[in-house]
Write a structure and sequence with these properties.
By secondary structure, this protein is an alpha+beta fold. Helices cover about 40% and strands about 20% of the residues.
C-alpha cells in the first residue's frame, strides 16, 4: 500500500514539476518575445528621435540660408544705393572744388588789382596834374562781372531722387516690419477666441461678465456645487474646447506675483485636495507656474525649473494638435519658455487659469485673456 502511495505521490510530483516547467517555459517565451518587442520599439524610438533631429537640422539650415540670402540682398542693395549717392556727392564736391579754386584765383587777382588801384589812387592824389601809368588797362574793366560763374547755388544733389530713395527705403522698412518677427506673426495667426466658463470656477473666483478675466476674491460665493466646478483649487477653464488644428491664447498677467496658466483635458479632477486637481500635477494637464519670481513648468507632477529672469507682462500658449505639443512663450518678445511634447492628445483641450490667492494684496490683479470673445459666454 505504501509502495502504491509513494508511486502515486511520485507521479503527482512529476506532474507538478512538469506543469511548472511548462508554465515557466511558456512565461520564458513570453518574456523573450516581450524583450524582442521592447528592443524593436527602442530601436524604432531611437530612429524616430534621430529622424526628428535630422529634419529639425534641415529646416533650421534652410531658414538660416534664407535669412543669409535676405541679408545679402539687403547688403548688396545698400552698397548700390550708397554708391549712387556717393557718385553724386563726388561730382558735386569736385565741381565745388573747381569753383572754389576759380574763386580763390579771382580773390588773388582781385587783391592784386586792388593793390594796383590803391597805389595809382595814391599817386594821383600826390600828383594832381600827373596822368597815371596803367600797366594793366583791363583793371578798370574788371568788376562785378568777374564773379560770374562762381556761385555755389547752381550746384546741388538731386533732391527729388533722394526723396524717392528715402520713400522706397521707408516702404521696405514697413514691409519687413510687418513680416517680422516671424514667430510672432505665425503664432498670432493661430489666435483663437475663447472665454471662461463660470460654471467651472472655484467659488472664490470672480469671472468678468464677458468671460475675459478671472480675479481672486476673499468671499466664498454660494454657487451650485456641480460636477464641473473646482471646489478646492483656484481654477477655471474655458467654455470652449479644442481638438484639432493650432491655437494661440495670450494672457495679461501684469502686476501679478503668482499665477498658473495651461491647458487641460475635461477629465481633470475637480473635487477635493488631490494633487491631480492642480494644473500640471496629473496626466490631464500642462502648465507654467510663476511664483516667487521664478517660473516652473509642470506635467504629471514633474517640475521643470525655467532659467528665466524676466517678469513677463503677457504669457502666450501655443497648442499644436498636429505636432502634439504645448508651448509657453513670453509674449512680450515671443521668447520660448517651455515646450511639452505629448506626441498626440487623447481628448479635447480647454484653456485653464489659476490666478492664485491675493497674498495680502500683492497678487490682487486679474488674469486677462487678450483674445477673448467679446460677447458674454453662453451657459
Amino acid at each position: 500500500m505504501n509502495c502504491l502511495f509513494n508511486s502515486l505521490r511520485m507521479l503527482h510530483v512529476q506532474y507538478l514539476h512538469h506543469s511548472l516547467q511548462e508554465l515557466l517555459k511558456s512565461h520564458q517565451e513570453c518574456l523573450k518575445l516581450q524583450r524582442e518587442v521592447a528592443k524593436d520599439r527602442q530601436k524604432n524610438l531611437a530612429e524616430q528621435q534621430s529622424e526628428i533631429s535630422k529634419k529639425s537640422y534641415v529646416i533650421k539650415e534652410s531658414i538660416i540660408r534664407k535669412y543669409l540670402e535676405i541679408q545679402a540682398i539687403l547688403d548688396n542693395d545698400l552698397r548700390t544705393t550708397l554708391s549712387h549717392l556717393e557718385a553724386e556727392e563726388r561730382a558735386a564736391v569736385s565741381t565745388l572744388d573747381w569753383l572754389m579754386e576759380r574763386n580763390w584765383s579771382l580773390m588773388q587777382k582781385t587783391e592784386q588789382d586792388l593793390a594796383e588801384i590803391t597805389a595809382t589812387l595814391d599817386h594821383v592824389n600826390l600828383h594832381a596834374h600827373a596822368m597815371p601809368d596803367h600797366k594793366d588797362p583791363g583793371v578798370m574793366d574788371r568788376g562785378p562781372h568777374a564773379l560770374d560763374g562762381t556761385e555755389c547755388c547752381s550746384v546741388s544733389l538731386d533732391a527729388a531722387k533722394a526723396e524717392q530713395i528715402l520713400s522706397l527705403t521707408d516702404n521696405m522698412f514697413l514691409l519687413i516690419s510687418s513680416l517680422t518677427p516671424t514667430i510672432k506673426n505665425l503664432v498670432k495667426s493661430y489666435s483663437s477666441d475663447v472665454c471662461l466658463d463660470p460654471d467651472t470656477a472655484h467659488p472664490k473666483l470672480l469671472i468678468s461678465p464677458q468671460g475675459d478675466s478671472v480675479t481672486y476674491t476673499d468671499t466664498w460665493k454660494e454657487l451650485p456645487d456641480t460636477p464641473l466646478r473646482f471646489d478646492t483649487t483656484l481654477n477655471v477653464i474655458s467654455l470652449q474646447s479644442f481638438s484639432f488644428g493650432c491655437h494661440y491664447w495670450e494672457m495679461d498677467v501684469t502686476g501679478k506675483t503668482y499665477w498658473e496658466l495651461g491647458v487641460t483635458y475635461p477629465s481633470i479632477p475637480r473635487k477635493g485636495i488631490a494633487e491631480d486637481c492642480w494644473l500640471g500635477r496629473g496626466d490631464e494637464s500642462w502648465c507654467v507656474e510663476f511664483f516667487g519670481g521664478e517660473y516652473t513648468a509642470w506635467h504629471r507632477g514633474v517640475p521643470h525649473r525655467l532659467l528665466v529672469t524676466k517678469q513677463y507682462c503677457r504669457i502666450g500658449i501655443v497648442c499644436n494638435f498636429p505636432a502634439g505639443s504645448v508651448m509657453f512663450v513670453g509674449a512680450d518678445d515671443m521668447s520660448p519658455l517651455f515646450c511639452f511634447c505629448a506626441g498626440s492628445f487623447s481628448d479635447s483641450l480647454h484653456l485653464a487659469l489659476c490666478p492664485g490667492h491675493d497674498h495680502n494684496g500683492t497678487n490682487a490683479k486679474p488674469i486677462v485673456i487678450c483674445n477673448a470673445i467679446s460677447s458674454a459666454p453662453l451657459v
